Amino acid sequence: MIGNQFCRLVREVLTELDIVYELRSAGKESPRRKELAAITGGSSQCPYLIDPNINVQMAESNDIIEYLYKTYALWTPPNELLRSASGIVTPLLTPLYRIIAPLQAGSYKANEFEYQASLAEAKASVYDEISSAPVVVYTYALSPFCTEVTALLNRCGIQYKEVSLGDEWLPGLLKEPAKRAALLEITGQSSLPNVFVGGSSIGGLFSGNPGVVPSLEKGELMKLVEEAKQFMS
């Protein structure tokens, strides 16, 4: 149906993926409606996808979109709401994170030597971890950005080593504050996820150097992963 918002979403994805398709409008007064009902066994729900390449038929816009990305795209993009949230939250919270991370690690304590020793130990641990696998991801268990970045890597077929620093950065939920401060010193980023490829940080889901999604959009991430595999093999 031309005016149906769910049909429009499917058409947008077909166009984005540059898939040649035939549009058959099955509005209420269209003779195509009976044709659709005959194909589906009585239902005239739209959108309805017929893919003759793989002999697949399905309804529900969300299922169709997921199928199109998995079948015809190099990678499936994350939730757009997260991208919007990242654009708002990241600039606001990054300065706060840079202040809080050292404080949580103990920089406020009188014994500066003890703090520096703890930080040096955490940095050494980070360097060991990021050199132990081609792709290493630092995460929080409750962060939707961390959950999405690991799901995205899984969809891309990228194997990775996950290092969790706890449930979140909030007091009581952060299990390794010194390691978070160490990540800040090493990469300039204390927010998670923080993804390393070949021992170098590319950042989080949407931001960093340049971030996982921007790296995929530029066609760079898979190449970096393959280079890291060869270098570390």
Descriptive account of the structure:
By secondary structure, this protein is α+β, with helices and mostly antiparallel strands. It folds into two domains: 5-72, Glutaredoxin (3-Layer(aba) Sandwich), CATH 3.40.30; 80-232, Glutaredoxin (3-Layer(aba) Sandwich). It is 51% helix and 11% strand. The protein is built from nine helices and six strands. It has helices at residues 5-16, 32-40, 61-72, 80-105, 112-130, 144-155, 177-187, 212-217, 221-232, and strands at residues 48-51, 56-59, 135-139, 161-164, 194-197, 200-203. A four-stranded mixed beta sheet has the order 4-3-5-6. A two-stranded antiparallel sheet has the order 1-2. The longest helix has 26 residues, at 80-105. The radius of gyration is 23 Å and the shape is elongated.
